[in-house]
Amino acid sequence: MTTTNALREIEELADMGITLSDGTRLSARVWRPADSGTDPVPAILEYLPYRKRDGTCARDALTHPWMAKRGYACIRVDIRGNGDSQGVMEDEYTQQELDDAVEVIHWLAEQPWCSGTVGMMGISWGGFNSLQVAAMQPDPLKAIITLCSTVDRYAEDIHFKGGCLLNENLGWGATMWCFSSRAPDPALVGEAWREMWLERLRAQPFLPEIWLQHQTRDAYWQHGSICEDFSSIKTPTLAISGWGDSYMNTVPQLVDNLDTVVKGINGPWIHKYPHFAIPGPRIGFLQEALRWWDRWLKGIENGVEDEPDYRAYVMDGIAPETKSLYRPGRWIAEQTGSTRHLPVETLHLTDTGLGPKGSLTAQVRTPLHAGMDCGEYGSFFAGPELPGDQRLDDALSVTFDSAPLPQRMDIVGAPRIRLRLSSDKPQAQIAVRLNHVLPDGTSARITYGVLNLTHRDSHAAPQALEPGRIYDIAFDLDHIGYRVHAGHRLRVAVSSSYWPMIWPSPERTCLTLHEAAIDLPQRPAGEADEWVFPPEDADPPWDTRTLREASNIRRTEIDKASGEVRLIIVDDSGLVEDTSHGAVSGTIARETWVIHPDDPLSARGICHWTSETGRGDLRLRTETTCEMWSDAEYFHLKSGISVFENDTLLYQNDKVSRIRRDMA
């Protein structure tokens, strides 16, 4: 094995078959040095359901050829039942999925063009299963890079944040309803493509129906949650996420809990790889990854294990931008651990504002549409998805403002809110936002947290509230790196609802705050970067011909007759043709979230995805729809798939279900 990174000529395989022990053939796209048959190289596995032929082509083109030219075989595998791989997928992160990955890793290590060492890398789903597979400890797996992932599938994914049902549970379920219902490419799988497609359609699960059957943190969620046993991960781990994403908490959790070499980076980015993410500044992720792989897959002594444990970007506080291309700020570096060692300043919520301890008698009875400027749970499409000006949401909440800060404050870590409160109902929620109020009155969300108050002691065994009883409550807001300038103010905004981020409790509630304080982790303010990353680099972008331009819509509507408030979202990825092999692909995602400010049982979510694929005279289209509403006792779901071949209906499946609410 060559241990230098001199550029090598590479070859690409569009469809390398990996046959598992049960006979299922997985399809892999491979980039590797052309001479790897005589000079073997380590393998880097990215293992996803997101369709290597069309779904991840844009990022694959930037990433995998670049790494292959530097002496690695990059293997992009469609998991069972997705893309061009055989079989069916029954759920996310099943034991079958993880066992398949372990088989793939052993298969890769045994190939004559592989040196015998394997790394695993991925963002989101691929970041999740990188951690989960590492916990299974396959011997050839020597290191992982996990991006935008989680250690806790229940409370830190798209399901039940703070025990509150996230509406992303339906939104992401609609996404997978679309992704997994698409056909394999006939050009790769041959005449069997239609039967493969029909097989997966007949077996297609509607995932929100599964997820809602587990409203508490039971064994279903413990599976795949590596926080159950951090010690199970022995492989060196590089963890990365961004403040514009929903998985920023994972990075410090891994840094502080893994008993192996682990390094963490939190930047300003949304849910994208940081060599092409927004907002900037971008970093040379590929160079960082190369050094990681060189050290652990090739044994090159380059000192990565001695670098700071945690590097984070502290964003300068600015007026909110729902789509941000660049955030000013600076990079900080913590040599040991993440942020738990940083000093904390405590501010109290009082009748006169946010500051020294004082009396507090506040009632929180929020109109149910409070939260319309929350932004996406995790910004993904790069449209107007980041939190907007918070003033409208602040006006619907109970707020506590500080005096103008005498000096700038760098908040780095997870603020903690501590409350003594009572509720007038047995079920209730609370949402707490920490905002930055600029001199002109603009309000920017710094970070936030939510809690289902029946989960105050346990996500596994929630307990109803006793109306009128005072409870001591504490929970963390999300990790952040944020600078508030001198002369600006802090605001804590408290609400009893947060729509459309979380599904409302079955009754509108009134919370009474008796005492409250927030602990703000702080880091001494500085000016210069404490760490300098190389600039972003990448291979040439995916070569496509645009057939329909991409676009994004996000608007709020108020029905003056009914009083209902609607958030309408349309994300059109555009329609493109791959110029190298002629495949056409594109999607349109539509979401509508409806609620009446006074009625929690008016809440409704409606999703509709259109997916187009094909080539030449063949045009394939899937229309997937889903809808969710609730009464006091049940969640109600309606879902449907309609599949068309050249505009002729080939398959249709509609279903309805109801699932009893369990303090959600």
UniProtKB/TrEMBL annotation:
It comes from the Bacteria. Residues 290-542 form the Xaa-Pro dipeptidyl-peptidase C-terminal domain. This is CocE/NonD family hydrolase. Signal peptide: none annotated. One of its GO terms (molecular function) is hydrolase activity. Keywords: Hydrolase. NCBIfam families: CocE_NonD. InterPro entries: AB_hydrolase_fold, CocE/Ser_esterase, Galactose-bd-like_sf, Xaa-Pro-like_dom, Xaa-Pro_dipept_C, Xaa-Pro_dipeptidyl-ppase/CocE.
